[in-house]
Amino acid sequence: MITPKHFYTQLKNNGVSFFTGVPDSLLKEFCSFLTENIFEKDHIINVNEGAALSLGAGIHLATGKIPLIYMQNSGLGNIINPLLSLVDKEVYSIPMLLLIGWRGEPNVKDEPQHFKQGRVTISLLDSMEIPYKIIGPETDNISLIVNDILKEIREKKAPCAIVVKKNTFEKHFSNSNKKNEISLSREKAIKTVVGCLLHSDVVVSTTGKISRELFEYRKENKQSHSHDFLTVGSMGHASQIALGIALQSQNRNVYCFDGDGAALMHMGSLAIIGNKQCDNFKHIIFNNGAHDSVGGQPTIGFEVGFANLARTVGYQTALLAKTSDEIIKNIEIIKKSHGPAFLEIHVQKGARKDLGRPSVTPIENKVAFMDFLRHSKAVE
Ligand SMILES: Cc1ncc(C[n+]2csc(CCOP(=O)(O)OP(=O)(O)O)c2C)c(N)n1
């Protein structure tokens, strides 16, 4: 295994001093090393991978240096446009190092949303003509690998990648990964919201632990999972899925359970929701100021003022709750909102250790959900 510090030192020796990206669980030890040891101006945890890559391009334009852009392989989709139309050697030819966590590597146990992405990761890099090296727990020549790849990046004046297998990085014992000051847990907040919903309501929940906690709650209460569409992949897109459903099922309320990281990832979606003025669209953001599902790296969630932002882009009601009582009171208000409604809930970072994962497949989830929409009676 490689210590994050050793890896960082090799990069530094090769002139890499700016880091940006979106966190991934396979890279969490390296990210937490950066968060703790690098000045904030040189390490920016970004909202999506395409934005990170473009920020890195700007850093190069201003300094001539080679930035490092880190991501989960799910983020490849978000970088393809700026990768091929901005930094590619046939366009502006901007050198950079991509560090990609390889979820869903063939023959390694993982969740369904990672299978296909993992299988095509290498061929995607091949077809985009991005040279790469693969590192894993067995890698014992990391300094050589880093030297070689940076040499290639400099010669080609173009992006190259290091693909990182599971368990490559040794644990980094972090002091900064502390809990926030809030006492309400996300799980309790989810239970409180679900407790206020009508039988006809449906939920579209975001990627990561929010969906897992919702699933567990339904199971614990012997409630059907068919009310919920669990967006296990496709981070940042739950709100548009929910909007599509809301536009077509106007007699029932459609709730989007979002995370701060996910909402920030494609924040432009809020503007479309605000513009469409759907009475039955209810957006709930469980804001813990972190990418909790992949290691708890900080987001700017507590600094953006989500409720104000929602109001500005056209949501008719936008409220904040910090306790279970405030959740209950505010849900009653958003239920009556004419036009899209927004509720930001401040929650504690972290989840219980024994949190399970959905035991239904994505396709089973979809079929049951569509069946519920088609056959259950909506409010008249
Ligand atoms: C495009 C993309 N980038 C990164 C990831 C990895 N990922 C999964 S969940 C998650 C964090 C989500 O954070 P947030 O929405 O704030 O919810 P929380 O986990 O804090 O409840 C990340 C970065 C992903 N699935 N897809």
Describe this structure in words.
With 380 residues, this protein is α/β, with parallel strands linked by helices. 42% of the residues lie in helices and 16% in strands. The chain is built from 14 helices and 14 strands. The chain has helices at 4-13, 28-37, 49-63, 76-87, 112-127, 142-156, 186-195, 209-220, 238-248, 260-265, 268-276, 306-312, 324-335, 362-375; strands spanning 19-21, 43-45, 68-72, 96-101, 132-135, 159-164, 202-205, 228-230, 254-259, 281-287, 290-291, 297-298, 317-321, 341-346. The strands form three sheets. Strands 2-1-3-4-6-5 form a six-stranded parallel β-sheet, with helices on both faces. Strands 8-7-9-10-14-13 form a six-stranded parallel β-sheet, with helices on both faces. The protein has a two-stranded antiparallel ribbon with strand order 11-12. Helix 1 (4-13) packs across helix 2 (28-37) and helix 7 crosses helix 8. It is elongated and about 65 Å long. The N and C termini lie far apart (60 Å). Bound molecules: thiamine diphosphate. Thiamine diphosphate is lined by residues 22-24, 72, 74-75, 78, 206-210, 235, 259-262, 288, 290-294, 299.
